[in-house]
Amino acid sequence: MSHEQINQYLSNWTERESTAEAMIPLIGRLYRKNNVVTSVYGRAIINQSVIDIIRAHRFVRQVEDSELSVCDTLPILEAMDKLDLGRAHIDIGKLAVKFKEEGGDLTDFLQREIGPVIGQYAAQSEEDANNDTKDVVLYGFGRIGRLLARILIEKAGGGNNLRLRAIVVRQGGAENDLEKRASLLRRDSVHGPFDGTISVDEKESALIANGNYIKVIYSDGPDKVDYTQYGINNAIVVDNTGKWRDEAGLGLHLKSRGVSRVILTAPGKGDIKNIVYGINNDWITDDDKILSAASCTTNAITPVLKAIEDEYGIEDGHVETVHSYTNDQNLIDNYHKGSRRGRSAALNMVITETGAAKAVAKALPVLKGKLTGNAIRVPTPNVSMAILNLNLKKEVDVEGVNEYLREMALHSELQKQIDFVNSPEVVSTDFVGSRHAGIVDAQATIASGKRLILYVWYDNEFGYSAQVIRVVNQMAGVNYPIFPKRARD
After folding, report:
1. Which residue in 296, 401, 439, 475 is the catalytic one?
2. Residues pairing with 386 in the sheet
3. Which CATH number fits domain 133-265: 3.30.428.10, 2.30.30.100, 1.10.1060.10, 3.40.50.720?
4. Does Oxidoreductase appear among the keywords (predicted)?
């Protein structure tokens, strides 16, 4: 290879870096001014580095037949920046690929694809924007609570969104309790450092994270807080303690002044609606005061199961979950009320029960009584896998079912719930931070006649937290139209 050819590689890379740098202010302006969330094939590009933006474009070659360059998407962003867009989620990667296929005039193309939000921007004063936000309170600040906080803080910059106003915890007993809470938000052994800055106001008992003023309230009961004294009204309380799971227990939150609705980050008991966003979120009504976001495993498997049921029909099946250990287990052998869970989580694979298979029917009634399930807890801190062993009503082959699930992941209404990977080298840590409910591993798919086995990865912390926020958004009436709406021909 000649020196000229070698140098051309570096020249091409430098050009891509320069183009990605030019995209960053456009992405930021669309987000903060117009509340337009941009992505590339489901990969968010807001607040991302130059390398992250290039990597998001590179991902497209895994799921499409063609490459996608930042040179293809920059013109899309430049044109969108001039259109006074209203609030929306817009996948500029999918738009760019479709435009490359169709050609023609870019303005006319965008008019067809995102027409409903063109010219819909309405400037608001800061006071009006603040009035349009919905107060959110996190009751509990454990693994899920802190990830919910990260997502809420990250999304606050777009305006007219959810706003994290308070965190409610029990007094830890240490003199520097507030600093310890801040440190756990600032540093995470699995998900890495907080993306921004966090300061502590000891006098006012508050955290200031990326400009978000978050009151830290100490309380020993959900019905013992007057949120209105902190200027919090009609708040949605996200209970991530798991301590109260029925209507009577969760209803205690509604006795506190300033609370309008409650959502549980665990399977609800009794008549509480268990919502898996993308599947049955249309069940949510204005009259619902208490809802459950089901479990991480139920969220991971239900969208994939629905896709398979819709296309092939499911006779019956078994769900085996290979799940990372959780705080409920012991680090070393010690007493535990549950069977086997007293043994060291860091040293053992532990067989345990899971209600996820039966819980699927609460969101997808057509599968009631058709699935069994079990779980194996393994010595990893995060990212789990569900193995779906299904008997179908139609015969399938590996290529056909993988292509169908790829299309569902890219171009269906479940595109935010189902992701798709087709690499022989991926392992669990590759999915840390995934915001999809579940990721289908195409290389592991097995099919024979009417028998189908699917392997579905999921970040049982972050992917689930993203699903919870989607439910909270709907409860708050914060809805974004998604573009492009039509699948490619």
Report:
1. 296
2. 321, 456
3. 3.40.50.720
4. yes
